[in-house]
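Researcher: Watch the backbone:
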Amino acid sequence: MQKDKKIAILGGGNIGLSIAKGFIKAKIFKAENIIVTRIPSQPLDDILALDMNATHNNEEALSDADFVVFAVQPRQVNNLLKNIKSALNPDKHLIISVVSAMSVEDIEKIIGEGFRIVRIMPNTAIAICESMTCIAAKDITSDYILEIKEIFDKVGSSLIIEEKLMASATVLASCGTAFFLRFIRAASQGGIQVGFHAEEAQLIASQVAKGAAALLLVNGLHPEQEIDKVTTPMGLTIKGLNEMEHNGLSSSIIKGIVHSFNEMDKIK
């Protein structure tokens, strides 16, 4: 746990709140040392119900914080930074940005240089400590990026990457959650068609997906090596795989990932 250190999460949407929940679950920060902000039109009751602090005032949130997380949408970040830059202290605040389309240099142009700034790209599974979080900074050997990696290793797995790869990380690590969930949904629907009730099909498909991923993480083999273990000559598995490939399974997934990547420039 970051003992008595305090963290301000500016942006209490899906990802901001997921980060807060993960930090509490992993016992990295005490709930009372987390403060989450939202715009005045959004309620704070659900945040307060988790024993965290909440406010509509970003400057108030920064006053006691050691860590500051920017977890707003790209279209909101410029105004946020302009409004809070006078309250930011380079000697006190370690900045963590979850904003996909804004580089460290972009942030510095607004708030000034001299800050410790780390960019991260987690996903919503951080709430249950199962995120894949990619991390980048100007100096990937700095003590502060290693401190951030240590934190995010406790809420899943993390990987330090070059900043130029953050757009790719957004698509594969963050959007990827939705891509894999859509595959599980499709597998569940297939399970219903072959006889299972919906909840049974979803349980089976979800656990199979979890087990398949665990095989790669534990054994460290290429996916095709694990696939070969369950495909026999003229068997059901290879027939199903080939039918999926004839209908563009791998091609569709690759195209979807590349298409999302190519759309990144449009959200700046």
